[in-house]
Design goal:
This protein is of the alpha+beta class and 311 residues long. Helix content is 23%, strand content 25%. It is built from 5 helices and 13 strands.
Length: 311
């Protein structure tokens, strides 16, 4: 089993395999090494190789992942008069629907001034046999004081919640009940209901509710909305493409890349050095190792082969 390599190890291995006369970096010299330019180039070459792997058109096995996340009912608040915080209980002035806030999002860096719109997540405290949702445009109260107006269904920025997420794949999205504290499901065990993806169309905003089952759409801002809107917390399972963040600290790892491919980054850096310094023999040696790694990656990408009638 391959041993994972952190940033400083990858850089030092590339320096060693390049046979360049540089001393290995240490924890003390990594951030401010002597002969800064060449050391910096090796750092850049390692990171460039890491990021480029995930930008290639090939469907490498490590480019995607599957995750299950908790999703709670979300509502959009407009004309916000005072900050909304976790733990607040919001009540519709007309509907008398009650909602406890467990999360607040601006879907961007929080501004210095009070935002006009926020999305809040939480749980409805209203009996499901009664109208469970707010009315469009109604005043939302907190301790009987107006705090905002109801602006509609809230949205979800999964990339904000999941580190390294790039794109959500719109196939095989499934929704599950949240198990009770004793591990049982309130409505019995479910294998997960398939959630249909519907292309965004403002005219379909409410008709989607009547199609039966759950649907999800991506709005023009790149955030997702459920139709019909969630009434309670659920588990959502989906596949997504990963997009790595370049390494910065000596102890950082190329997190989304399996350890068996870490040496690929080393040899790509060696190849870049050889091209930079016109070292044809070093370039050929690095290319040989790159070809071997890429052959393994292509092999992992191929579907399993089976012969009918044989098990």
């Amino acid at each position: 089993m391959a041993i994972p390599k952190n940033y400083i190890t990858l850089v030092n291995d590339a320096i060693k395999e390049s046979k360049v006369t540089l001393d290995p970096l240490t924890a003390e010299t990594f951030d401010n090494p002597p002969r800064t330019r060449l050391y910096s180039l090796f750092k850049d070459w390692i990171n460039d190789a890491y990021v480029e792997l995930f930008l290639s058109p090939n469907e490498w096995e490590f480019k995607s992942a599957r995750i299950t996340v908790m999703v709670e009912p979300a509502i959009l608040l407009q004309n916000v008069a005072s900050p909304v915080e976790i733990g607040d209980v919001l009540v519709g002035q007309s509907s008398d629907v009650s909602f406890t806030v467990t999360g607040v999002s601006f879907h961007e860096e929080a501004p210095l001034t009070l935002p006009d719109e926020v999305t809040v997540y939480g749980t409805f405290n209203t009996d499901y046999n009664l109208p469970y949702h707010f009315q469009q445009g109604e005043v939302i109260l907190r301790e009987d004081a107006p705090v905002a107006t109801y602006g509609g269904i809230g949205s979800y920025d999964f990339a904000e919640q999941i580190t390294g997420m790039d794109e959500l794949f719109h196939t095989n999205i499934r929704m599950f009940d949240v198990p009770e504290s004793d591990g049982h499901y309130s409505h019995g065990y479910t294998a997960g209901n398939l959630v249909r993806y519907e292309p965004w169309n403002q005219s379909n905003y409410y008709p989607l509710v009547s199609l039966g089952g759950a649907s999800i759409s991506k709005n023009p801002q790149g955030h997702y909305q459920f139709f019909p809107p969630l009434q309670k917390p659920m588990l959502l399972s989906f596949d997504y493409s990963q997009h790595p963040t370049p390494m910065v600290n000596a102890t950082d790892y190329p997190d989304f890349l399996p350890a068996k491919y870490h040496d690929y980054l080393v040899w790509k850096a060696v190849m870049e050095y050889a091209d930079f310094d016109n070292k044809a023999d070093v370039f050929r040696r690095a290319k040989k190792h790159i070809d071997r790694h890429e052959f393994t990656m292509y092999k992992e990408e191929l579907p399993e082969v089976s012969i009918a009638g044989l098990s």
